[in-house]
Amino acid sequence: MTELKHYFAPTSLDQAVECLKDGDVTILAGGTDLTPQSQAGRIRIKRTLMNIRHIPQLSGITLEGREIRIGTLATITEIMEHPLVRQHLPVLVEACNHFASDQIRNAATLGGNICNASPAGDTLIPLLLLDARVELASMPEAKLYRHSMPLATFFVGPGKTRRSLCELLTCVRIPLPGEGHVAHFHKLGTRPALDISTISIGIGGTLREGVLTNVRVAFGAVAPTPVRAARAEQALEGQKLDAAIIDRVAAIARDEVEPIDDVRATAWYRKEMIHNITRRMLTHVAQA
User: Fold this and answer.
1) If you write DSSP's letter for every residue of 45-89 in order, what string do you get?
2) Are 133 and 152 in contact (CB under 8 A)?
3) Segment 231-253, tens digit of pLDDT
4) Quick check: 51 and 16 in contact, CB under 8 A?
5) N- to C-terminal Cα separation, the chain
6) CATH of residue 93
């Protein structure tokens, strides 16, 4: 087991990405995932523990052109309470309201929830609906380099992402939803505000005269990563939300997922809940 040798608390983004060049670095932000997982032996703290909470470039929620930028250090509570998010991204507020307890929301960061890459991560489903992109920073030479990618392609497996060891997630960028945009999130669990999701569902799009376009459907806790449901999206696109379409899409959604049995639910139960709750959510949208 590697012995912790260094604790580093950078105050600039340059310092942080320079430190990551070493490759043997564990990043600490809110600590709400890292602390219990390291204590349980599921995560090994590397030689350097880097606390990024003092880097101002990683904080804040701002409107930049037609995008909302949410810094990686924004806490779940900050996101829930911020007027920009409440006005333009209510589905993200809805998901944050089901995120653990008040105490954890006050410490947990958006970047941590994303990089933890849990298939059941609460913020990940609304971010997929909103076409969010993640921005990453590194310093391959002497100059800071930034690049971004769609969140939909960021996850590769449970706890695994496309972020390299020398990269730091700096922010999430979300395009402003257009007029008529609707989106809803549902989390199913024994105690939805405290437990890990048994399943989670997000449905969004532009609704005009009962017809849904630019459709996004996303599921959590039914695959190795949070997933977009391409077949369900295709079946919904451009369709008027009548009873027949809703029943058809709910059946497609059930058959599109391939969940597993685990301590929270059986695969059969998850598939049935995907069917039932998708149907309920679409009915709610149609009646709104």
Assistant:
1) --SEEEE-TT-GGG--EEEETTEEEEETT-BHHHHHH-HHHHHH-
2) no
3) 999 999 999 999 999 999 999 99
4) no
5) 56
6) 3.30.465.10
